[in-house]
Design a protein that fits this description.
Helix content is about 45%, strand content about 10%. The protein is mainly alpha-helical.
């Protein structure tokens, strides 16, 4: 596969710990959203049926991986701003800082 998505696809094939979130407002057609304001949502999985025929080839391949159960990939019908609003606040501390805080807490408690 030689496209602009080739580096991403290569990373997906070789990196088992990669996490990928795709944000696009076009995963669900605007006309479908207008006619079906309450799209059928399977509550347990929170999935909307995706029309793969409308998608680009690399999007189709990624969607098929998701459909087959690849939990490393999430496809979000929306803008990046929607994703940012959905994410919890992330600690700005590095792993080193977090470890230092834990060790200091242990010392204060007299366990180290």
């Amino acid at each position: 596969m030689i496209t602009s998505a080739a580096p991403i696809w290569s990373a997906i094939e070789t990196n088992l710990s990669i996490r990928l979130i795709l944000c696009d407002t076009c995963f669900v057609a605007h006309s479908r959203k207008d006619h079906e304001p309450e799209l059928p949502l399977e509550q347990e999985k929170q999935e909307i049926e995706l029309d793969l025929e409308r998608q680009k080839q690399h999007q189709k391949r990624l969607a098929r991986l998701v459909q087959q159960g690849d939990t490393r990939i999430t496809m979000l019908n929306g803008r990046f701003e929607d994703l940012a609003d959905a994410l919890p606040m992330i600690s700005g501390k590095t792993d080193r800082q977090l470890l230092k805080d834990r060790l200091e807490k242990l010392r204060e408690e007299g366990h180290a």
